[in-house]
Amino acid sequence: MPIGLGRPILSDETSHRTGVRQAFASPAARSTDMARFGIITAFALLAGPAFAAGEIPFEKAGGWDVERTANGAACLMSKSYKDADDDNAENALVFALVGDKAVMTFVYEHWTWDKDEKIRVPLVLDKVVAIPKSLWIGDGQTLTAELPESLVPGLLAAKIMVLKLDGADADFNLAGFPQAYESLRRCENTLKAAAPASAAASTHIVQAMTFPGDGDVPPRSTFSADTPKIVLGIQIRGLKPGDKLTATWVAEKTDASASNFEIVTSSIPLGASELVSASLTKPNAGWPPGRYRVDLRVNDGPVEFRHNFEIEGSK
Q: What is the three-class DSSP state of 167?
């Protein structure tokens, strides 16, 4: 075993179950940052569970952040900035490909849309109307749309995207979009190589989340190197006592081990509850920074669900 990778401790403590239950019951409470986490929730409304599990950094490209969802099911790209010509109002755009659709969420600090408010407006790219009546769904400071993938070439060539709203135009600077789109495609290729990854493909796993240590704490997908313990909370279905659920903790990419090093595989006790958990304790020297995942198998079958998380480097 490479230096720095420890052994797991299985856990089914009340504090874990409480934190997991609250997290599964209140996804909106985890979406607090206007330009990032709030729009992940908006994406989930249109794009499904792939966008409802948080995100893990993939790389930066052209001033955009490219990320994959924490369950490894999809990739997205986002950019935010303050507009000096509008009293430094915050603007943000998140983009992802979902099947043959381009899903976008546009965020503007001063919007006050009603939840699920629908508008149809022209979408303009560099003064050319790309979609005469694009449909957007509002929620507070966000507008979300599911648009045809055929819009992508126009986005790659344009400098400015504009929504022609009643009384005012909403514009977004698309600088760096081509570089970010290339990165998004690279991210998607890594997901294809790492399938299976999504809850939709799993018969027995509804979803999974990682938490820092014990108690009632919000889930996250990124941890510091000194996190005492990482808890994996899992919501299951269709499993009964006598079935076997195993978790394999994998160091996907760190400086402390070879790629995809299997740290340990452990069995997770099953009972009457649909919520179960396992945990991995911090090595004595701290967690080696890098990318990790947990592979879940049922009755020694193939990987049925994969959950990703990341350890940040020293600041």
A: coil
Assign 3-class secondary structure to 252-297: EEECCCCCCEEEEEEEECCCCCCEEEEEEECCCCCCCCEEEEEEEE
pTM of the model: 0.53
Instruction: State the Cα–Cα distance between residues 50 and 70, nearest whole angstrom.
Output: 9
- The span from the CA of 264 to the CA of 88, in Å, is 49
Query: Looking at the chain, which runs of residues are DSSP E strands?
Result: 8-10, 55-61, 64-69, 75-83, 89-98, 101-108, 113-125, 128-140, 142-148, 160-165, 168-173, 205-212, 222-223, 229-236, 245-254, 261-268, 275-281, 290-298, 303-311
What span, in angstroms and rounded, lies between the C-alpha atoms of 243 and 238?
Answer: 10
**238-283: per-residue pLDDT in tens?**
998 889 999 999 999 898 888 889 999 999 999 888 889 999 999 9
Cβ count within 10 A of residue 246: 16
The SS3 of residue 161 is: strand
E strand or H helix at 182, and its extent? helix 177-193
Buried b (16+ CB within 10 A) or exposed e, 287-305: bbbbbbbbbbbbeeeebbb
| Structural tokens at position 194 | 């790492």
